[in-house]
Amino acid sequence: MSNVTIKSPREVELMRKAGQVAVATLMAVDELIRPGTTTEDINRFVHDDTLKRGARPAPLNYHGFPKSVCTSVNHVVCHGIPSERQVLAPGDIINVDVTSVLEGYHGDTSVTFYVGDPSPEAKHVTEVARRSLDLAIAQVREGARLGDIGAAIQEFAEGQGCSVVRAFVGHGIGRIFHEAPQVSHVGRSGSGMRLKAGMCFTIEPMINVGNYEIDVLEDQWPAVTRDGSLSAQFEHTLVVTKSGCEILTKRPHALKNSDRFPWLFA
Ligand code: MF3
Ligand code: CO
Ligand code: CO
Description:
The chain has four helices and 15 strands. The protein is of the alpha+beta class. It has a single domain (9-247), classed as Alpha-Beta Complex (Creatine Amidinohydrolase), CATH 3.90.230.10. Helix 1 packs across helix 2 (39-52) and helix 3 (120-137) packs antiparallel against helix 4. The protein is globular, with a radius of gyration of 17 Å. The structure holds 2-amino-4-trifluoromethylsulfanyl-butyric acid and cobalt (II) ion (CO) (2 copies). One cobalt (II) ion (CO) is lined by residues 97, 99, 108, 110, 204, 235.
């Protein structure tokens, strides 16, 4: 609880730089999203692009993770492992989760991309995940509670007929990839720790078409929906301010293969 670090303005500047590296790489991945691309193509690109920017890909060898990025397709909830054998097909949705370490600080961000023109159900869960993150971010300011974040996500996503994964949470971030606090994507507003300016954490709701249960095979990374339904996720790294927050992984412009259906909940 009180082991949540408050970043100094100098550290926030380093977090901003790390966040901007992660988002620059993710924006460039957009150009690779098409049928025929393999998830290993994405991994190779992310690895090389991260090094070119003077950073290091945090996933590689993190608790034994074998690749430089997580690529989670369709019913894979998170921690998908890139593979030469996994070829993107028309109608797939794929979350690409990039974490860069620059000068010792982490930036962590993900989006779900559309491959071609996915099913209405796939678009629905993706847009619910996108909007869930936006609504959660709108709760963040000094004095707000951690539970306000989960409540905003849960209320919206469940109201849209989707479910919110419980088994994975957002996290404090800084010199350490995953630090306190844990940021649940479900909760009760007015409950939980009070946010303070200078706290840095991620919000990264995983939203399922079916129920929220997931499976992870023993000694393996990828998490999948137990019922085989589609799952989508978006993630930002942010810093709490007095009046709100700054999104450290803010995208400079819209993505071609995501950010495409703004009218769905207009
Ligand atoms: N980027 C993921 C997150 O949002 C964590 C991936 S851990 C890895 O927290 F080892 F799978 F890369
Ligand atoms: Co994260
Ligand atoms: Co991430």
